[in-house]
Amino acid sequence: MLKPFLYHNLIEAGCDEAGRGCLAGPVFAAAVILPRNFRHDLLNDSKKLTSLQRFRLRDEIIRSAVAWKVASVSNEEIDEMNILRASIKAMHLAVGGLVRKPQFLLIDGNRFFPYSGIEHRTIIRGDAMFLSIAAASVLAKTFRDEFMEKIHNEFPDYGWDRNKGYPTRQHREAILRLGITRYHRRSFNLLNTQMKLDF
Predict the structure, then answer these.
(1) Can you give the pTM of this predicted structure?
(2) For the residues of 168-185, what is the DSSP string, one character each?
């Protein structure tokens, strides 16, 4: 059972991102403030859930949350600032869009830039420990999946309806055969043709 909060006396927002390791598309992030009494047996790290479970949970999270926000940073911005900074920028945008200001941020992972006026804690595997981070994980993942399914219609050969932009064999072979699209992250190793490191 995931923990409902870290501090009993603070309004906490959980934050997580989705799409950090993809070759194409934006990185998405979400921030969620849950009610103190919120509990859900199914809610967990979004990677452990099926797509159907994630979308059902998304509706429940949106209905129940005190506040929630999803934000994204484009592939062009990722190339300009690097994926770590882009992921943190997306989380900052999500936090800034909350209709209620949190007093503390629970961040999934081990890297974060302080958000002005709000203390935070980074937690490795936090989406498997705290309900609010797990909820943010579900929102970020489902909103990003919907975006990738939408742009799949523009470039169907890359299989984004299934791989969501991750570096699957089909995706890499399509890049090799067709080249890149305007959604690809040019700063990433898109072809992965180097099989060993040269010293």
Answers:
(1) 0.92
(2) -HHHHHHHHHH---TTB-
The encoded tokens of residue 25 equal: 């598309």
Phi-psi group of 109: left, alpha or beta (phi > 0 → left; psi -120 to 50 → alpha; rest → beta): left
Q: Report the C-alpha gap between 91 and 97 in whole angstroms.
A: 10
Mean pLDDT of the chain, nearest integer: 93
Give me the pLDDT at residue 199, please.
30
CA distance 94 to 136: 10
Distance between CA atoms of 99 and 66, rounded to whole angstroms? Answer: 9
Q: How many helices (H) and strands (E) does the chain have?
A: 6, 5
Read off the pLDDT band of 192 (50, 70, 90): low
Q: Can you tell me the mean pLDDT for 93-110? A: 97
Residue 163 lies in a domain: no
The answer as to whether 87 is a domain residue is yes
Domain count, the chain: 1
- Rounded-to-integer distance, Cα 133 and Cα 74, Å: 22
Residue 91: which domain range? Answer: 12-149
